[in-house]
Design goal:
By secondary structure, the chain is mostly beta strands. It contains two helices and ten strands. The model has no long low-confidence stretch (mean pLDDT 91).
């Protein structure tokens, strides 16, 4: 196991797949995670938060593992409304990085084989997900990553 590194982001599990949501402050990482978790649960699938805002990452046996700092365990920020409690898992393997994007989309299509370098070593493939008002982000993920969510 490599020494851990704390990063700004949100980590979640949808089905059997771990996602690290990344991007600048205020882009909608927490909102995207909450929308995906809620939609997956409404469909009867497993979904849980690992960590919101700050994520502890380690490299273990060649896999990137996300954990939540103890001080914020089980909490998610709903911007403009406050802090809420949400069911969590203590740790999860991260399989993908999600980059929330909004209009104007420049470039219109993302670069091929785009990857997020992880400070503890390794990288994650990036999937860009539009976050305009009313966008069903879980539907976008399911279309972009067919058969990768485990549901």
């Amino acid at each position: 196991m490599t020494p851990g590194h704390n990063v700004h982001g949100t980590a979640m599990v949808l089905g059997t797949t771990g996602f690290l949501v990344t991007g600048p402050s205020g882009i909608g990482k927490s909102r995207l995670a909450l929308a995906c978790i809620s939609a997956a649960r409404q469909m009867g699938h497993f979904a849980a938060l690992v960590a919101d805002d700050r994520v502890d990452l380690t490299m273990e046996k060649g896999r990137i593992i996300a954990r939540c700092p103890a001080a914020i365990e089980g909490l998610i920020e709903i911007r403009g409304a406050g802090i809420a409690k949400l069911d969590t898992v203590p740790a999860a393997v991260m399989d993908w990085a999600i980059l929330p994007v909004s209009e104007p989309f420049d470039p219109r299509l993302p670069p091929e084989n785009e990857r997020l370098l992880i400070p503890v070593g390794g990288s994650l493939p990036i999937v860009r997900v539009p976050i305009e008002n009313g966008a069903h982000v879980l539907a976008a993920l399911r279309a972009l990553l067919p058969e990768k969510l485990g549901f």
